[in-house]
Amino acid sequence: MILIISVDNDTITDEICTWLSYQNKQFVRLSESQHINKVCFDFKNNIFKISIGAIEYELGDFTSVFYRNGGIYYETIPGDIDSILVDFYNSELKSISEFIYYYFRVNGVRIFGNLLTKEVNKLEVLFLAKSLGLKIPDTYILSEMNDLKQIDMSQAYITKAISEMKPIIVEYGLYLNYTHELDVNNIHNKKENIIPSLIQRKIHCLYEIRVFFFEKQVWAIATFDFSGSVDIRNIKEKDKRYLPLILPPELKKKILILAKKLALKCGTVDLLKSDEEYYFLEVNPLGQFHQVSYYGNYQIEKHIADLL
Fold first, then answer.
1. 253 pLDDT higher than 80
2. How many domains does the chain have?
């Protein structure tokens, strides 16, 4: 039996489930709408059961687990409950989830995806990538305008969030902190301090690269941008072109070493290709790989289903 942990309306998970059904493999998917509604753990007799809907499963029945995103979801408390009690209830459920993960790990269940490592620190990743010999853009974290004088003013720079991007809602407006080009000359003489901010030298690239790694397999596509935007997420599809790409063996090796040191079993890596160099930007443990699979014609969803 295969356990898939995902969220509702995740098209990648939908396609993997389609392949599993085609291969006649038994699986159950946990999500917000398909959650655990009963738990029965008997430590004396070593029986550990969960119920999903009307069906009961023993944890020992699961031979492999694929974590896509989200988490283990439980039935919510009915009625109007004090927020302190809700927090306590959630902390109890968190301990149960952690035990389920532990049970899978110590009982030799094959775990795919980042069930145990769901987040990474962007600065730690950059520091590690550089130590492994991956080229990164000149990077600074600054909180005083005076410190800008250490930057080469003849270069162009960008700024983006240090942490993961969070949507900000103010009244009826939605704001997303995308990557933006920074006019260093315009702010160089300002006296105000700023919150610690990430500043990177803008790389004039030939194309961007999206890499997806899963276990020891690596797939990549090149994205050509004809809009001039500094953040590919802001580019309309009509202004982009994709090609499958074979990475140099040494670069692929470094990506897999980076993944191992970060305890990541899968994820997406963003790179830039200039005239002479490959520049590492970041790794996303929950990265979307649909574009890589579709435009590279890799059928990654089938590959994952085959492993499960």
1. yes
2. 3
| pLDDT recorded at residue 9 | 87
Last residue of a domain, one of 201, 222, 256: 201
pTM here is 0.85
Confidence of residue 201 (pLDDT cuts 50, 70, 90): confident
DSSP state of 74: B
Q: Write out the DSSP string of 178-200.
A: --EEE-HHHHTT---EEEEEEEE
**What single-letter amino acid sits at 139?**
T
Backbone angles phi, psi at 248, to 5 degrees: -60, 140
Domain boundary among 69, 96, 113: 113
Q: Is residue 118 part of a domain?
A: no
Q: Report the pLDDT value the prediction gives residue 178, as an integer from 0 to 100.
A: 72
CB 138 within 8 Å of CB 201: yes
Residue 129: how many other CB atoms lie within 10 Å: 24
CA 121 to chain centre: 12
